[in-house]
Amino acid sequence: MRRRHVQSGPPVSARTDRLVYIAALVLGALPLWVSSHLPMVDLPQHLHLISVLHRLDDPTTLYPQLFAARHELTPYLGYYYAVSLLNWLLPLDLANRLFLSAYVVGLPLSLAFLLRGLGRPLWPSLLALPLAYGDNFGWGFINYLAALPLALLCCGFFVHALTRAGQRPLWASGLAASLVAVLLFHVQAFAFLGLALPWLLLTTPVPEDASTRGFQARLRPRLPALLGVTPGVVLFLSWVVLRLGQPSEVETGAPWKAWGPMLSPRNLAWKSFAQNRAELLEVLANLLRDGSDRLPLYAVGAVAACALVLGVVRGDSSGEGPVARWRLPGLVLIALGFYFLLPFDIRGYIYYLNTRYAQLAAVLAVASLPMTQPALRRPLLWASAVCSLVLALVLGQGFRAFSREAAEWDVLAEATAPRPRVMGLIFDSGSRVVRHPVFLHGAAELARARGGGTNFSFALTPHSPLRYRGTPPPTFPSEWRPQDFDYATQGPAYDHFLVRGVHPSRIFGERLRQELAVAAESGNSWLVRRR
């Protein structure tokens, strides 16, 4: 009697490892869901403009009166429109958390995709989860953060388009789409790919190399990958280069304005090599004042150190050639080069430039750990998942503590009238829980809650998909210097004033009893309204 062949599923151990991987991803995103407010400096501004974009024709708000769509491609277009589309299905805050969760989960998944393309084990990708947070997260550089998984996807698609002979057009199509998406989110990640993809091209062998000779024969299997980068390069040349070539308004010493020609010494602000070296590890985990968010980073370091020793003692690099094994270390060096060699600011164009690349360098560094023998990979996977558990416990507790502190915004929002014009006078932008100045843009929270506008908005910047319909409301030069506020020239344009860190009587004097009144007080903040 013939025995029937029954196709079995993956081994129990493999299924268990997948469940562990999935559980680690859930734990990595969990801090985003345990609090009502997230400690990100620019988040209130982002959410306000997304609300404007979504309700631009809503007559119950000030939005149609103040703002207009900027009908051109801009670097912030990807994030704003993605969350605005989700906002049709979900409340804005929930849509934004879902987007951020996709970023946090997407960082290790895209790294795993790259590792698979390079023929390496996937477990190091979990070590990227704690690296999803840190300085870039604290400042609220969401567009740049979202571009990082897409950049890793580009590298993975590029490698697949080179090495998967039977499916090169498919992988090249994915490369083209992801590269354009990177540019629509943030140009700094695109700049990294400008060196990363040529490096992968030079160091990645293709199957046909063993049987072909001559330049044209070797070029032919690489053409799909090269064609895949063409749409992104064309878009970059037609958009970014032309934009950067336009004359910028020069105003020496003025915030957010160029101080000279783009690459002139007057326009470049640098950090010293010693400062960059001292901050390299610090910016990877600097959210909480008590330093507890360094614990997940220490855990990642411990697992990475063990893997490094095991890779040296019981390594297995049989699947990589002498040149191909330098692909990931080369990407790390490129990211570190951007970190150490680029300026901190290019005034009027790009701010906080070089520091952002520390996170990318760290993510690529954990992926570059030497390969161990297969029997050791499962314990390393489980150890990496423990890092995510530590992350969830530490950041979950910290984010909840910040949310209790930031509840002062909720109290003040209830006392805010519909369609307000809110002036933010934030003398104390700091928090007792987190290190970043997360209360700086509190006025945008009140404006979003009631469909109004603020004295400072990202609509002032050319990379926003929105602009002011007419003349922007009067304000002082920098939101960082509320002491420059002059009520006589700026105050009459506003009917609400959010004051933090200084009692309103010290700012408004007799006006506080005559034409203004404190409508609400909570925490270290006051809401002042016109009588």
Q: Quick summary of this structure?
A:
The protein contains 22 helices and nine strands. It has helices at residues 12-29, 43-54, 63-66, 77-87, 92-117, 135-139, 142-163, 168-185, 187-203, 215-219, 223-228, 230-245, 273-279, 294-313, 327-341, 357-367, 377-406, 408-414, 442-450, 487-490, 505-508, 511-514, and strands at residues 67-69, 268-269, 345-346, 421-426, 453-454, 466-468, 496-500, 516-522, 525-530.
Could you characterize the architecture of this molecule?
51% of the residues lie in helices and 7% in strands. The chain is an alpha/beta fold. α19 links the parallel β4 and β5.
Kindly report how far apart the N and C termini lie.
95 Å
Radius of gyration: 25 Å
Range of strand content: 5-15%
Give the overall average pLDDT. 91
The biggest sheet amounts to:
5 strands, mixed
State the helicity in percent bands.
40-55%
Structural class, by secondary structure, is alpha/beta
Number of helices: 22
* Unreliable spans: none
Keywords:
531 residues; alpha/beta; five-stranded mixed beta sheet; two-stranded antiparallel sheet; 7% strand; globular
Itemize the secondary structure elements and their pairings.
Layout: H1 12-29, H2 43-54, H3 63-66, E1 67-69, H4 77-87, H5 92-117, H6 135-139, H7 142-163, H8 168-185, H9 187-203, H10 215-219, H11 223-228, H12 230-245, E2 268-269, H13 273-279, H14 294-313, H15 327-341, E3 345-346, H16 357-367, H17 377-406, H18 408-414, E4 421-426, H19 442-450, E5 453-454, E6 466-468, H20 487-490, E7 496-500, H21 505-508, H22 511-514, E8 516-522, E9 525-530
Helix pairs in contact: 1-5, 1-17, 2-4, 2-19, 4-5, 5-7, 7-8, 7-9, 8-9, 8-12, 9-15, 14-17, 15-16, 18-19
